[in-house]
UniProtKB/TrEMBL annotation:
CDD domains: FBPase_glpX. Keywords: Carbohydrate metabolism, Hydrolase, Manganese, Metal-binding. It catalyses: beta-D-fructose 1,6-bisphosphate + H2O = beta-D-fructose 6-phosphate + phosphate. It comes from Cypionkella sinensis. GO terms for molecular function: fructose 1,6-bisphosphate 1-phosphatase activity. Signal peptide: none annotated. This is Fructose-1,6-bisphosphatase. It comes from the Bacteria.
Length: 321
């Protein structure tokens, strides 16, 4: 008989897809309603309920926040039936709450699962990120390089001119200098208003999305989720935690991080096999958004396993509740 405490990624993966599907379905009626909190809360509740049906002894390592600030899916919360493998769970029940509230593209529900102790316990601070898709040596671009150098290095590796590279960046005042420097190379920039997990994943499907590289700072939890996705799809991501004050440093220490200046590679954020599921909420470039027709609702989910590099896309049509 199979060892139920072993990380059976193949069996667990379909259960994980149901979790992200449930979160997306719950937020369906809140798309475009201008209420971020309600959309997020609906996704959180549904994700937690589905997660607790899985035969796992799960612990949330990337979640909704610290126990005192998040009543559900807080960091350290035990999830699952407890009958099964000990796993780490990283989740963002609604990645792109504002995108959902405004019905703008690329809002997703996201969840990753890996053997216990193998996902970086990133605190809820910012992370400097740099990502490229598959097919390049790991150090083709690095965080040590200046942004313009990264563009030129990737162009060289691709055998194209710098002005044929497209970089995805979150549109924020803090990125003004970064944007100017990238533009100085002639590269194109796809500015996004939110949703850097999708931004990073875009690099892994550059033929479809037109995006070659992701740069800039965003949430550290989203960095670990993006690293999980790229570990399945191929591609590299580097992340460095950014601290604005002592409280944020204290959060890192609490999460067990001692070297505050460390640059993490993809495989240092996700040290073993991982499974990853994301469901489209609003229309997106990698996943279609939730479709509602009279009596029915359809979602699209991407489900991936790093062990095999398998990428499944699943449409799920169910009666509207
Ligand atoms: O808006 P900020 O503070 O720049 O933070 C950026 C982060 O917020 C997001 O855009 C949206 O995240 P949530 O919808 O989960 O809040 C992330 O994709 C990104 O990492
Ligand atoms: Mn998020």
């Amino acid at each position: 008989m199979a060892d139920v405490t072993e990380f059976q990624d193949r069996l667990l993966s379909l259960g994980l897809a149901r979790v992200s599907e449930a979160a997306a379905l719950a937020s369906a009626k809140l798309i475009g309603r201008g209420d971020e909190k309600a959309a997020d809360q609906a996704a959180v509740n549904a994700m937690r309920d589905q997660l607790n049906l899985l035969d796992i002894a799960g612990v949330v390592v990337i979640g909704e926040g610290e126990r005192d600030e998040a009543p559900m899916l807080y960091i350290g919360e035990e999830v699952g039936t407890g009958n099964g493998p000990a796993v780490d769970i990283a989740l963002d029940p609604l990645e792109g709450t504002t995108l959902t509230a405004k019905d703008m593209p690329n809002a997703l529900t996201v969840i990753a699962m890996a053997p216990r102790g193998t996902l970086l316990h990133a605190p809820d601070v910012y992370m400097e990120k740099l990502a490229i898709g598959p097919g390049f040596a790991p150090d083709t671009v690095t965080l040590d390089m200046a942004p313009a150098q990264r563009v030129r290095a990737l162009a060289r590796a691709k055998g194209v001119a710098a002005d044929e590279i497209t970089v995805c960046i979150l549109e924020r005042p803090r990125h003004e200098a970064l944007i100017a420097e990238v533009r100085s190379t002639g590269a194109a920039i796809r500015l996004i208003t939110d949703g850097d997990v999708a931004g990073v994943i875009h690099c892994a499907e550059s033929e479809i999305t037109g995006i070659d590289m992701y740069m800039g700072s965003g949430g550290a939890p989203e960095g670990v989720l993006a690293a999980s996705a790229l570990k399945c799809m191929g591609g590299q991501i580097y992340g460095k935690l950014l601290f604005r004050n002592d409280d944020e440093k204290a959060r890192a220490f609490k999460a067990g991080i001692t070297d505050l200046n460390r640059v993490y590679t993809r495989d240092e954020m996700v040290t073993a096999d991982v499974i990853f599921a994301a469901t489209g909420v609003t229309q997106g470039s990698i996943l279609q958004g939730i479709k509602i027709e009279p009596g029915w609702v359809t979602t699209e989910t991407i489900l991936m396993r790093s062990k095999t590099g398998s990428v499944r896309r699943m449409l799920y049509k169910s009666p509207m509740k």
